[in-house]
Specification:
Blueprint (H helix, E strand, L loop, with lengths): L2 H24 L9 E7 L1 E17 L2 E4 L5 E6 L6 E2 L4 E5 L2 H37 L4 H34 L1 E3 L4 E3 L9 E2 L7 E4 L4 E8 L3 H8 L5 E5 L9 E13 L4 E8 L11 E18 L4 E3 L2 E7 L5 E5 L1 E6 L2 E5 L6 E5 L10 E6 L5
Parallel strand pairs: 1-22
Antiparallel strand pairs: 1-21, 2-11, 2-15, 3-10, 4-6, 4-9, 5-8, 6-7, 8-10, 11-14, 12-13, 12-15, 13-14, 15-20, 16-17, 17-18, 17-21, 19-20
Length: 372
């Protein structure tokens, strides 16, 4: 081997050594990904209300339209529009002078005929005694008895006429038939009111008050099951009324047929409404509380995620890595969900899911309670 070949081999060996050294320096181990901070909660087993949610409309428990039963001049209005009235309160007065005159005439006829009847009874009694003694004919006796019977019928007719006249006078003072809130008046004082013409005003009873709502027909057997022998609670909340406490009532009754057009059943709840929160015509969110279901597996509703394979939660394992766990949500109540697929005591992620995949390392930053 000549010297040139030796030099070439030496330089080649040096070049390979330098290349290997440079390659080794460029291959550095990548840093481990930082743990994802998450909030978690414990899966619990507890009692949870069995509820059905819907939308409803507030209705007056009773609604009365006020009309006049007689014709006359409206002489006085005794209420302010929108005020609460009580049963028996005087609302309007109608000119009653002509009806009072008719009442006096009817009373006069009654008194006259009662006097004639009294005299006819005396005559009939006298004719009876005379007939017994043979001083009066049978015909005279029969005529006296017939006169008494005829005058009795006349007096009865007069009494009916007096009662009718009293009713007509009473109709001139229109009173509230229920407790409630009266609306706007449709005719001003001084105008002529016709008999059974336009409504004068309307009264809505708002305490108690009703809410009408519907539920799918498949829930009817379940509702009837829990309704048997029990009073079911109905909770109503006005949408957008922040800070306002829900109003509680009870289920009043279920309609006697299913709406074939919508496949729903209509129900009514009754509410005492002492604070006048509910008002006829309001749309409200309604929850029908059927029962307290014991020993169900519950997670906070914010843990539930939706994926291509269905709903799932992230479960934090003992090595602080995230596991994707498919779950079945049976129902939701008060921000808690009843689920199948997890066990009580397991830890589930409530916040931070967007940065997670199966096997991601997690750092627990907060533990939230499973509030009901």
């Amino acid at each position: 081997m000549n010297k040139n070949n030796c030099r070439i081999k030496i330089w080649s060996a040096l070049a390979l050594a330098v290349a290997a050294l440079l390659t080794g320096c460029s291959r550095k181990t990548p840093p481990a990904s930082p743990a994802v901070p998450v909030s978690v909660a414990q899966v619990t087993q507890q009692a949870l209300p069995l509820e059905l949610s819907s939308f409803g409309t507030v209705e007056a428990n009773m609604s009365v339209t006020i009309k006049s039963q007689v014709a006359g001049i409206l002489t006085a209005v005794h209420f302010k529009e929108g005020q609460e009235v009580s049963k028996g309160d005087l609302l309007v007065s109608i000119d009653s002078r002509s009806f009072e005159a008719q009442l006096k005439a009817a009373q006069g006829n009654l008194e006259k005929d009662e006097a004639q009847l009294k005299n006819a009874k005396k005559e009939a009694s006298r004719q009876t005694e005379l007939l017994k003694k043979g001083y009066a004919s049978q015909n005279d006796y029969d005529n006296s008895v017939t006169a008494v019977d005829a005058l009795k019928a006349t007096v009865d007719s007069d009494k009916a006429a007096v009662e009718d006249a009293e009713v007509q006078v009473d109709y001139c003072s229109i009173r509230s038939p229920i407790n409630g809130v009266i609306g706007a008046i449709s005719i001003d004082q001084g105008n002529l009111i016709k008999e059974k013409d336009i409504p004068i005003a309307s009264i809505n009873q708002i305490s108690p008050i009703r809410i009408s709502f519907t539920l799918p027909q498949q829930y009817l057997p379940l509702i009837r099951k829990y309704m048997a022998g029990n009073t079911l609670e109905v909770i109503a909340k006005i949408p957008g009324a922040e800070g306002q406490e829900p109003v509680k009532g009870s289920l009043l009754f279920i309609d006697n047929s299913v709406d074939t057009g919508t496949g729903t059943i209509r129900l009514w709840g009754i509410f005492q409404n002492e604070k006048r929160v509910l008002w006829p015509g309001l749309f409200v969110n309604v929850v029908l509380n059927l029962a307290q279901e014991p020993n169900v597996v519950v997670v906070p509703s914010q843990t539930i995620q939706n994926g291509q394979q269905g709903q799932f939660v992230y479960v934090v394992k003992t090595d602080n890595t995230a596991e994707v766990r498919p779950v079945t949500v049976q129902r939701t109540a008060n921000n808690s969900s009843v689920v199948e697929g997890v066990k009580p005591g397991e830890t589930v992620v409530t916040d931070g899911q967007l940065r997670l995949v199966a096997g991601t390392k997690v750092q627990i930053k907060e533990t939230t309670g499973n509030k009901n």
